[in-house]
Amino acid sequence: MDLLKPRTVPLSEETILWFEFLLKPSLLAKHLNKANPDPSPTDLITQFLAKAPEGQTHPPDLTAPDPDGAHRSDGLKYTKKQLALKILALKVAAFMRWDLDKLERTLSVSLQIQLLADLCSITAGKMVALPSSLLQDPALIGTDGSRHSFNFALTLYHRWVLRAQVLRAAVIKNIKSNHGPAVPDLTTFVLRDESSIPALEPITQLSIDYLNQVLMEPQTFRVLTYESFVPLDSNSEHTQQRFDAAIAIKPCELRAQLHYDLCQYYLYVQKYELARQNVLLCKDNYAQWQREEIGRTGLPPAYCTVSAEVLQGYLLACGVTGEPDGLLQRLHESILNHYSDIVMILKEDNLRKEIPMTQRKLLELNIEGYNAIGSTDGNPIEQKELELAVVALNIIRYVMDGENILSCNVALQKYKNQQPKLIESLFQYADEQYEQFSLEERGLLKRYFYKIITLYGGELGPAFEAYVQSYSKVVSLQELKDFRAQHTQPETQLGGVALQSDWVIPETKNPRLEVGQLERQLISCTSANAVRKLLVKIAGTNPSKPLFTINPSWTIPYPLEQVLIPLQRGFLQDFAYILIGKARELTARKEYATAITLLTVLKNETQRPELAGNPLIAKLGKMVSWEGLLVQIQQVLDEWPRKPVDQAQLVRNCKQCLNAAAAGGGNELMPHAKLLDHCAALLLNLNEWNALLVPVDKRFPGIELCSAITQAFLDIEKFKGTKKTNREAWEMILPMFLNPPGSRQRQLPPDGPLVLLIGKLREPLVISILLSLLAKLHNILRDEANAEMNAEYMFLWPSNVNNTSIYNVKLVIEALNLLLNQALRYYPNNIPWLKLKGDVEFVANNFEAAMRYYVTALISGTEYCTVHLQRPLVDDFLIRRMVKCSTNLGCFVQAAVLCQFFDETDYGLAFKSISEKSASYSDAMDSYYSCIWDPTLLEFIVNWHYKKGEHKRRLQAVSFIGQLELNANNNDEIKREAAAVRKNRFLRSLAKQYMC
Residue ranges of region Disordered (predicted)? Predict the structure, then answer.
């Protein structure tokens, strides 16, 4: 034996292993009552359930005698070992007072479901599988079950259904935001558990109904305790649980907890009014429970885990502040109560200025509209007075804000018929609060009232003086006389038409204007019925040109134009041309449903009985249906990955279209090339491989290319990844990158078959096959070890090309970039594509962009650093590329840290990187010490700082060497865990630098 070989640290004498509780259940209570038990309660639950997981999925059939000592209950079909373990797990959960907060923080979702299923099964006396919508009837219990205990289990389960969805949404939102620290205490709820939660959505409403029913139940709610579960021992063949040991709790404690859970869920689904109702009920019951139970007994709560601080947070989230309602809130409540106390609220707001003027203006318009429709809810005179009062108070607020004076004048003009009453209201409300306004606001009011005197004082005459005499605080009688004495009449007297306020434009009948109006309507409308009516009206004006020439933007495909132009000039020609042109416009704007509707109406128009004998009409109908198929395909490609509603019918139509092209010849009608290319691309994306293995006309290179890619896929399937060279697609694509004579550089033609196909590819496997072809071709043409690219399925393609000098490698890079950008748009987290995109940027010497894609690939592969970084996600090829990028970017310590990621740490490269560190310290060297797990590298850094005379930095590096987990005598498992933690820490720092 090698005595120097590191071994595991021996366990403490106080440490108890999980199976000891199975052999001697009496140890459990003693262990759990320790201050810091090891293992912890949740660790025990994990161990107990992990040793008997089969009870949740497929319970064994125990109709025959079980030699292993099975528990022979008619309801529960657990083995004796399973039942013993599950009872121990439930005893621990009962000791924790069924605290879902603690269970959710430390148990995975699958274990939470298993624990709840075991609780339901044992309390029901028969097997229960979760999730299930059949749990709504608590009467369905076995002979060994208990009604009140099963009711307790169901209540706990339905609470968990709501909480699990809220918790999952919080974790996903935090992960995707990439801002700030992780959500605390939610580390067990990772992305791998997401698949367990969607199954709960169909029964969510049932859970809400059940919890509301529990709230209304008059019977006492009983909570299972630690003594309620009787453990098995080696001498007992079966057990009878002590459900009578459950304790009854106060109704207010139960209601506080259930209303709290309902409030959480309603906030998550944005039903804020229901959340507000439940949080108020929770608050009331919580306060009553504290007075009646906790204050009286001093014992910890038996069931409710609501925290006063968290409850206060939910009260604030629901708008329950405990403070008096603000003026804006009071305004909204007044509107709901038919504008009660609205004048008092606005007068108070003129002092406090809390309500935005936009809200006050909306209030004014609402009251105006309320009165305009002739509401019979109140006295019309009182309603009109209320409207004028609101207008007057708004004018005062406008004036004191020092802006929007134009709005004040508009209001006085608007209510010209009620002007005396409005001005009187202005004087009244300004006078009532005048002494409460500031000096500046008083000055603004005085200047405004002087303006009113100038504009309207002469019109009102004695009535105006009466207002001033009654409300003399703003403007006194003496001030009015002085102002009038200083105000002189204008020298220029206006009269006649200059004083006319209403200008009426006479109506004239102009046929050209009427026709122009109809044409504008025809251009803008999107309804086939409207087009039909407008064509009839415009045709009555005897136009000299076909009506489809009104809008030059209406264009149709050339094959359709060849069918439409020979038709006799008339309604059908114009109707068809315009509908097809409008459908193309709508398709370009991605309004696919409207475009398909127009083409469907046109197709039905061509099938009218009186047009049945015309061969041109029959051709037109067929081509219009093809045009509709093209729009459907474009919609599917644009909305990918959402599948079409009737995918099977769409696939059949595409196959018929390709068959028509394959069988077409002579005078047979054939679909145009664009439609055929789209049909082939859609079938390729939908994995309809057999439909593309048909004889292909050389006139349609797009279909031919799709067929070649299909054959490459079939080779992968047939030969199961073995090296089988596929030449069909290779030989088709290779000529596309030839250098034309007399030219050394050019771009890929945008209308070429390869570029057009790239724009239509959506299926990941098809994209990967084409990416591998382009990457392999690039490696052959470039023929440099440092410029190679890695992609999937590169074994499919030949390893050499004759006369590489006649090909343009820049065009290959262009095609690769085009395809990668298209692919990552739909699948941004595809790891092989992200790595390949990084290779493309690396070859182009765009090192920062390359690092961004490499880091993105690693972040996606580790589920945003929630799982450890492992192979094959990261390999030596990728690490060496990242080291090269970091070195070229001047991040030498990053490069040194990355040298640890190799299978064997490359000390030579790491030491060189640290020694070449720039003197500017722009690499933030100190921040990476916590990411280094190799002691040798840390020792080199310590010595390097010593040589440089950097004492403080040397001490900092020494402190990291002294960490326990980096001790050279640790076992391999501790070393791996230490390295994994530091890898993720370093990966997060790279993500902040290159991705944010």
Answer: 54-73
DSSP structural state of residue 236: -
Q: What tokens does 498 get?
A: 């200059």
Give residue 720's pLDDT band: very low, low, confident or very high (50, 70, 90): low
The secondary element (H helix, E strand) that includes residue 247 is strand 247-248
> Helix or strand or coil: residue 267?
helix
Closest CA to 215 of 157, 258, 273: 258
pLDDT over 70 at 36, yes or no: yes
Close Cβ partners of 751 (under 8 Å, ≥ 6 residues apart): none
Q: Pick left, alpha or beta for residue 720 (phi over 0 → left; psi -120 to 50 → alpha; otherwise beta).
A: left
Q: Which of 273-282, 356-365, 650-659 has the lowest mean pLDDT?
A: 356-365
* pLDDT above 80 for 558: yes
Torsion of CA 499, 502, 503, 507, to 10 degrees: -150
Is 703 in a helix, a strand, or coil?
A: helix
Q: At what angle do helices 357-372 and 327-336 cross, to 10 degrees?
A: 10
d(CA 900, CA 919): 24
* Contact indicator for 316, 398 with CB cutoff of 8 Å: no
Q: Alpha carbon 244 to chain centroid distance?
A: 48
With bands split at pLDDT 50, 70 and 90, how would you rate the model's confidence at 207? confident
Distance (Å, whole) CA 940 – CA 900? 14
Least trusted range by pLDDT, from 16-20, 227-231, 637-641: 16-20
What pTM was computed for the model?
0.52
What is the rounded end-to-end Cα distance, in angstroms, of the chain? Answer: 53
Gap between the Cα atoms of 101 and 262, Å rounded: 15
Over residues 630-644, the mean pLDDT reads 90
Band of pLDDT at residue 63, cut at 50, 70 and 90: very low
Q: What span, in angstroms and rounded, lies between the C-alpha atoms of 678 and 742?
A: 34
Residues in the chain: 996
C-alpha dihedral over 792, 794, 797, 802, to 10 degrees?
140
> Could you tell me the sign of the dihedral formed by the alpha carbons of 59, 63, 67, 69, in that order?
positive
Q: Of 44-58, 589-603, 934-948, which range is least confident?
A: 44-58
Pick from 783, 772, 983: which is nearest to 879 by CA? Answer: 983
DSSP state of 223: E
Q: Does the CA dihedral 152-158-160-162 come out positive or negative?
A: negative
CB 602 within 8 A of CB 575: yes
Locus of tokens 């063949």? 237
Contact 771, 733 (CB under 8 A): no
For the ranges 114-118, 128-132, 167-171, 225-229, the lowest mean pLDDT is seen at: 128-132
Which residues contact residue 992 at a Cβ distance below 8 angstroms, ignoring those fewer than 6 apart?
Answer: none
Half-sphere exposure of 246 (CA within 13 A, CB side): 21
Tally of CB atoms within 10 A around 152: 25
SS3 665: coil
Q: Do 806 and 738 touch, CB atoms closer than 8 A? A: yes
Name which of 171, 155, 154, 403 is nearest 268 in CA terms.
Answer: 171
The alpha-helical segments, DSSP class H, found in 337-471 are: 342-352, 357-372, 380-401, 405-414, 419-433, 439-460, 462-470
**Listed residue (445, 334, 455) closest to 397, CA to CA:** 445
Q: CA 843, CA 563: separation in Å to the nearest integer?
A: 52
- Single-letter amino acid, residue 592: Y
C-alpha separations of 662 from 282, 618, 690 in Å:
71, 21, 15
Locus of tokens 């028509």: 660
